[in-house]
Amino acid sequence: VSAPGVTLQNMVIEGNLTLTEGVGEGDAFFKKVTVNGTTTIQGGGENSIHFEDSVLVRISIDKKTGTVRVVAVGSSTIKTVVVNSPVKLEESAVTDSGFANVEISKSLPAGSEVQLKGTFEDVQVLTSDVKISIPSGTVKKLDVADGAKNTEIELNAEAIILDLVLNAVAKILGEGTVEKAIISEEAKESSFAKQPKTVEGSGAPEVTQT
Fold it and tell me: How far apart are CA 108 and CA 85, in angstroms?
């Protein structure tokens, strides 16, 4: 797909699907589309890429400049999203699993922001100096990997993380809820604007309140 304003519907794509830079800051709509390969998103703007009643195995977000918004609607299932560039992932009136797993990869540039809105199974942060904002919804498990330093996680009041696993120092901001934090020795300098309900791990006693 190399132009804005394209709609694809009622198709099965056995291989890969690429939205090229030609989409620019425009929109693209996918309705009842199944992609068995990797869907690579290199273009699209702030309002952008909509998957409705669609099934995708893997999405790779890889836009050279700016942020792209990817929306899952209805009975959509997106197993894995690999984030290599700034993105807003949003679920809207989802009746199936929507976005399941998100990998914030090492190739995401420092200073990037990733926004998650909806219900996510597993979010892995593998890179340093990025901001994750969760305006609303639930992340079942958010894992900040060893070496992913200076991660900033902003939780609005309507956001919940059930299990937060910190293997590197992170700063948790906002009024959202962390049900359980598991903090390693390397992450003991982590700070929380609002204390988690339960804290475990070798780094737990040292957690500071900011």
Answer: 5
Of 118, 159, 119, 125, the C-alpha closest to 142 is 125
Q: Are 80 and 59 in contact (CB under 8 A)?
A: yes
Q: Which of 137, 100, 106 minimizes the C-alpha distance to 122? A: 100
Cβ contacts of residue 45 below 8 Å, gap of 6+?
Answer: 24, 25, 26, 27, 66, 68, 69
Reported as a single tens digit per residue, the pLDDT across 59-82 is 999 999 999 999 999 999 999 999
pLDDT at 207: 45
pTM of the model: 0.94
pLDDT > 80? residue 205 = no
Parallel, antiparallel or unpaired: strands 17-19 and 208-209: unpaired
With beta carbons less than 8 A apart as the criterion, state whether 135 and 108 touch. Answer: no
Q: What residue type is 121 in one-letter code? A: E
- 69 by DSSP, 3-state: which? strand
pLDDT at 24 over 50: yes
Radius of gyration of the chain (CA): 17
What is the C-alpha to C-alpha distance for residues 182 and 107, in angstroms, rounded to an integer? Answer: 26
Among the listed residues 177, 169, 135, 176, the one whose alpha carbon sits nearest the alpha carbon of residue 152: 169
- Looking from the CA of 82 toward its CB, the CA atoms found within 13 Å total 13
